[in-house]
Design brief:
The protein is of the alpha/beta class. It has helices at 20-23, 34-39, 41-46, 82-94, 113-120, 184-199, 236-239, 245-259, 273-280, 315-327, 348-352, 358-373, 404-416, 421-434, 473-477, 483-496, 498-501, 558-561, and strands at residues 14-18, 51-54, 58-59, 71-75, 98-103, 132-133, 136-137, 143-144, 158-161, 166-169, 205-208, 262-267, 289-292, 337-338, 378-382, 505-509, 516-523, 526-533, 539-540, 549-554, 566-567, 572-577. It has 4 domains: 14-107 and 184-397 and 440-483, TIM Barrel (Alpha-Beta Barrel), CATH 3.20.20; 113-169, Alpha-Beta Complex (Oligo-1,6-glucosidase, domain 2), CATH 3.90.400; 398-439, no CATH class; 505-577, Sandwich (Immunoglobulin-like), CATH 2.60.40. The structure holds 1-O-alpha-D-glucopyranosyl-D-fructose and calcium ion (CA). 1-O-alpha-D-glucopyranosyl-D-fructose (TEU) binds next to loops. Residues 17-440 form the Glycosyl hydrolase family 13 catalytic domain.
Length: 579
């Protein structure tokens, strides 16, 4: 059997991501909670994963589902308490699972005590902890924000504060004021009272939210005008990867090193390999790895993410995106990640596979499992991905969408179009395809009402998908040909073939093919060939003929596909070299 190189634990690890609000509700209030997670640790361990990452469970008024933190040392009461967290951390460790938390320190909630103090007066001791600027005035004497930056959730990135008559910066919601990282007291407090507080409780690392946005262009210049009809402009180049960002991350790493904690940074808007390596090259002592957006950004609108058509991407673009992220570890001292879902993304089967029929849904979920499990880097699996959960149905109305990213957009379209029903329909269609809400639907545990997420009598904070009667853990656990059984098999195979699947070098084949994604993975003279049909028609696997490739696994079953040169719709296969 192949053996994996002796390496840091996180390289050959599979990390299961949990969204606390939507995973499991233990007390029937409709909101997932820490006890719910605790009660499913055996299930999580049964998947064959090594660690869990929990999305923010800190105290928060929940304008952005806990990414707006009002107290880093408290747990959001509906989720539980700090003691419950300690219990969960210890229970994970007792099962041999590691646990990482979400570190959200680009901004706080506007209800955090630091911000309340900061906004109280211009001379407050914490005034400089956030980013305050005076107004500008136009030729008519109208008050304007300091620059034209657009917030990531729409509207100006600046909010006027009546008390002290200045604007504060918020790259995300109005309720998420950005911390001023230039202030050394802010950095020290983040290290000590946020990071060390939880590291001392035994957490094994952090997923670092918006890791490249702490350092902004200090001149706060206007962004180039790309949409002249709009008062605000996309400004990523002025607040991502700013001049002091690497200094700040190196400082954080000094704290993390003491605990041997792992980090995975969320690295938006950084599509070049050089840009990524600046953060993940081991010699730089910054982050262990990052989530690049190459794949999950496919098909999104450039001005507004929802301003796009359905499936506005072609397979060769995905290939280039994968190649870019795979190359990060080819001949470098850097490391990469493998993921296509998280709490900010629609479901991968709906976006990249097909949810049109139950057959296509099943087939594409399994094909995507082969895809993910054969790519190099640390693999992340998002709750529900392992059972092939899909986007909310097309029939669902706008009232089922709760996420601020979706609702802000819908409201903007309503205002700008004067309530035009066609425009609103278009917006809803885009949301049905790309909204963050889809990943936040309750986890589908069983065919019971509320999908076994909440007791049948409860009212979950988001409605359970209508298809939970078909797609759920219980049904799939008892079925050896289910998506779940296939994922488990693939996760085992990934470990068995770690030298090739986790550490191997990726070699893209047949780049221009718009239906089949094929590639080799190579390591020390060994190689495998992976062929994935991204279409709903049979496709030929060109490379295999007459070359001595032996079928290792097929997503439709080895018998069904042996001897057939054609891939079935949405089928995936792995061949091993026998030459
Ligand atoms: O996301 C930051 C981010 O840049 C995007 O993923 C963003 O959510 C998306 O483009 C909007 O369409 C992180 C968190 O993962 C996200 O949940 C938070 O809302 C955000 O930071 C603010 O903390
Ligand atoms: Ca609950």
């Amino acid at each position: 059997m192949a053996s994996a190189p002796a390496e840091k634990w996180w390289k050959n690890s599979i990390i299961y991501q949990i969204y606390p609000a939507s995973f499991k509700d233990s007390n029937g209030d409709g909101i997932g909670d820490l006890n719910g997670i605790l009660s499913e640790l055996d299930y999580i361990a049964s998947l064959g994963v090594d660690a869990i990452w929990i999305c923010p469970m800190y105290d928060s008024p929940q304008y952005d589902m806990g990414y707006d933190i009002s107290d880093y040392q408290k747990v959001y009461a509906p989720y539980g308490t700090v003691e419950d967290m300690q219990t969960l951390i210890d229970a994970c460790h007792a099962k041999g699972l590691r646990i990482i938390l979400d570190l959200v320190v680009n901004h706080t909630s506007h209800e955090h005590a630091w911000f309340k103090e900061s906004r109280s007066s211009k001379t407050s001791a914490k005034r400089d902890w956030y980013i305050w600027r005076p107004a500008k005035y136009d030729a008519n004497g109208k008050r304007c924000p300091p620059n034209n930056w657009r917030a990531i959730f729409g509207g100006s990135a600046w909010e006027w504060d009546e008390t002290t008559e200045e604007y504060y910066l918020h790259l995300f919601c109005v309720e998420q004021p950005d911390l001023n990282w230039e202030n050394p007291d802010v950095r020290k407090t983040v290290h000590k009272d946020v990071m060390e507080f939880w590291l001392n409780k035994g957490v094994d690392g952090f997923r670092v939210d918006t890791v490249n946005m702490y350092s902004k262009d200090p001149a706060y210049p206007d962004a180039p005008v790309l949409s002249p009809e709009s008062e605000t402009q996309v400004a990523f180049s002025l607040f991502c990867n700013g001049p002091r960002i690497h200094e700040y991350i190196r400082e954080m790493n000094e704290v993390l090193e003491k605990y041997d904690a792992m980090t995975v940074g969320e690295l938006a808007q950084t599509p070049t390999m050089e840009g990524v390596l600046r953060y993940v090259s081991a010699a730089k002592k910054e982050l262990n790895m990052v989530f690049s957006f190459d794949v999950v950004d496919l098909g999104m609108g450039k001005d507004y993410k929802f301003l796009t058509g359905k499936r506005n991407w072609a397979l060769p673009e995905m290939k280039t995106a994968i190649q870019r992220t795979q190359n990060i570890l080819n001949g470098t001292d850097g490391w990469t990640t493998v993921f296509m879902e998280n709490h900010d993304q629609a479901r991968s089967v709906s976006r990249f596979g097909s949810d049109k029929t139950p057959e296509a849904r099943d087939a594409s979920a399994k094909m995507l499992a082969i895809f993910q499990c054969t790519l190099s880097g640390t693999q992340f699996v998002y709750q529900g991905q392992e059972i092939g959960m899909v986007n909310a149905p097309e029939e669902w109305g706008v009232e089922e969408y709760k996420d601020v990213d979706s609702t802000n957009y819908y409201h903007m379209v309503r205002e700008m179009s004067n309530n035009d029903p066609d425009k609103l329909k278009e917006a809803l269609q885009a949301m049905q395809h790309l909204a963050r809400d889809h990943s936040r639907l309750p986890m589908q545990w069983s065919a019971e009402p509320n999908a076994g997420f909440s007791p049948p009598s409860a009212k979950p904070w988001m409605r359970a998908h209508d298809n939970h009667t078909e797609i759920n853990v219980q049904a799939q656990n008892d079925n050896s040909s289910s998506v779940l059984s296939f994922w488990k098999k693939m996760l085992r195979l990934r470990k068995e073939y770690a030298d090739l699947f986790v550490f191997g070098i990726f070699e893209l084949l047949d780049e221009q093919n718009g239906e089949v994604f094929s590639y080799m993975k190579k390591s020390g003279g060994k190689s495998v060939l992976v062929a994935l049909n991204f279409s709903d028609t049979p496709q030929k696997v060109e490379q295999v003929e007459g070359r001595g490739w032996e079928l290792l696994i097929s997503s439709v079953g080895e018998e069904a596909s042996a001897g057939d040169a054609n891939l079935q719709p949405w089928e995936g296969r792995i061949y091993e070299a026998s030459f």
